[in-house]
Amino acid sequence: MKYRLGWEWLRENPGKIPILLIGKLYRLLWPIPESPNRVFRLVVGLAESIFLPFYLAGLLLVMRSRELRRSFLPVWLMLVKLLALTLIFYGSMRFRGAVEPLLAVAAAVAVVVLARKLLHLPKIAIPALAPSAASY
Fold first, then answer.
1. Residue 62 — φ and ψ, nearest 5°?
2. How far apart are CA 82 and CA 90, in angstroms?
3. End-to-end CA distance of the chain, in Å?
4. What predicted TM-score, i.e. pTM, was given to this entire model?
5. Which of 15, 77, 82, 107 is the most buried (most CB within 10 A)?
């Protein structure tokens, strides 16, 4: 009974489903929260905008490295779960809070790679991941 109207809408509006899904992803990924408090929106939006490029760069670097990709399997599973729940139910930036600590680990990978390039530091093995994990 609860979901009857939702299923009816989906059957009656199949052309609007992609727009609905894009809207849900937008609400999940948009860095600026919905709030009447302008200072809160500014502070959170600024902080999220600063970290977002590092999150994305870290995830891309992890995907390129076979060893890191395997080590990040729990992170990938959490991201897939978040994406599935968002697309099925509802998207909100506060749902992202559960995976942001995991994204911070990916961002750390990006920071380490960037520091190595800028400071010309040698690659070192990361024992917790694999003997050749520094090959990213």
1. -65, -40
2. 10
3. 51
4. 0.73
5. 107
Identify whether the C-beta of residue 106 lies closer than 8 Å to the C-beta of residue 59. yes
Gap between the Cα atoms of 44 and 23, Å rounded = 20
Count of CB atoms within 10 A of residue 14's CB? Answer: 8
Query: 């139910």: which residue's tokens?
Result: 89
- How far from the centroid of its chain's Cα atoms is residue 42's Cα? 20
3-state helix, strand, coil in the chain (%, to 5): 75, 0, 25
Tokens 């902080």 -> residue: 47
Structure tokens of 86? 């968002």
Q: What is the pLDDT along the chain (136 residues), one digit of tens a residue?
A: 678 888 898 899 999 999 999 999 999 988 898 899 999 999 999 998 999 899 999 999 888 888 788 888 888 899 999 999 999 988 888 888 889 898 999 899 889 888 888 888 777 655 555 445 555 5
